[in-house]
């Protein structure tokens, strides 16, 4: 929603730039895909590392109190 409001404000202030941004948005989205995949990979890697490090505590029966 904030992106739409920002684009509408840009359209009111400078409509050629807003139309250029609208035309280039799919290209920018495609260029950001590899960075999103890297982020997902690192998130999964850190989740695996956390699971491995906390495995002994889970085996011994530690339970989170909250």
Can you walk through the features of this model?
With 66 residues, the chain is an all-alpha fold. The chain has one domain (2-59). It contains two helices and no strands. The protein has helices spanning 2-13, 15-59. Helix 1 runs antiparallel to helix 2 (15-59). The longest helix is centred in the middle third of the chain and has 45 residues, at 15-59. The model has no long low-confidence stretch (mean pLDDT 91).
Summary of the model, kept short:
The chain has 66 residues and is mostly helical.
Query: Helix proportion of residues, in percent?
Result: over 70%
**Poorly predicted runs of 5 or more residues:** none
Q: Whole-number radius of gyration?
A: 22 Å
Instruction: Please state the overall shape, judged from the principal axes of the Cα atoms.
Output: elongated
Largest sheet, if any?
A: none
* Average pLDDT: 91
| Number of helices in the DSSP assignment | 2
**What is the succession of H and E elements?**
HH
Instruction: Indicate how many domains the architecture comprises.
Output: 1
Strand residues, percent:
under 5%
In total, the number of strands is: 0
Distance between the termini: 34 Å
Q: Label the structural class.
A: mainly alpha
List keywords for this structure.
86% helix; mainly alpha; 66 residues
